[in-house]
């Protein structure tokens, strides 16, 4: 799986482009991904450059021609919109796995081979995810979550609500003003309507993306609040509204995207918040332990 999108590649290479090529890049980025499917002539007109400049631009990105560039963009969009069913069918997960099958090289059965395969995939995905996170974005996320003047609201999706709860329950032990976005419509509307500049919305949104997450992020941005987005490497549509975007790889041995790399990022974020809060975190944890014991909860 590619670790970056075409948009990321374009942004990274802006400094190496000629002024005319940068015009093409900005037109594509402003309308990404749809602008990438325009014709050479239309892009050239919108960027106020010549058609050969558009061709030189895609050549600079490493493509032999404009059709190759569009094919790569189309492949990226297909991956971005993939479902577990489409991944199942494309990777032939339904192939027979019987106890009689043996790995020719090791003599292992399929289950042992699957364990080794999973170990390699998860190790590589976690290592790559942490290595690819921009330190500035990670540090900014930690600062926002550790800022006790801010109110933290967390929202997840079909599966990722589990990650929102995991991070939120940790933050609740370290600081005040941490809550989950309610599920019921009236309560959810009330919370969203009351968001202000002091609010930080932590959003988890992975393919197939959920439109309400983009709407929430937009509302917070409009009110001057901050959005911290956890997403995959294809980036949620909520990304343009986020102050911080923390992408993770989702490689898995099954047709379901893995949340293991994201969990590693969350663990690291929690460690960062504890370090930033210092002794205040310890006092908050101690107070929570004392209250829980008196209430007979622990």
UniProtKB/TrEMBL annotation:
Q: Provide the GO biological process annotations.
A: carbohydrate derivative metabolic process
Which Gene Ontology molecular function entries are recorded, alphabetically? carbohydrate derivative binding; DNA binding; DNA-binding transcription factor activity
Q: Where is each HTH rpiR-type domain found?
A: 4-80
Known InterPro entries for this protein? Homeodomain-like_sf, HTH_RpiR, RpiR-like, RpiR-like_SIS, SIS_dom, SIS_dom_sf, WH-like_DNA-bd_sf
Gene3D superfamilies referenced in this protein's UniProt entry, alphabetically: Glucose-6-phosphate isomerase like protein, domain 1, Winged helix-like DNA-binding domain superfamily/Winged helix DNA-binding domain
Q: Which domain of life is it from?
A: Bacteria
UniProt keywords (A-Z) are: DNA-binding, Transcription, Transcription regulation
Q: Which PANTHER family match?
A: GLUCOKINASE, RPIR-FAMILY TRANSCRIPTIONAL REGULATOR
The name under which this protein is listed is MurR/RpiR family transcriptional regulator
| Lineage start | Bacteria, Bacillati, Actinomycetota, Actinomycetes, Kitasatosporales
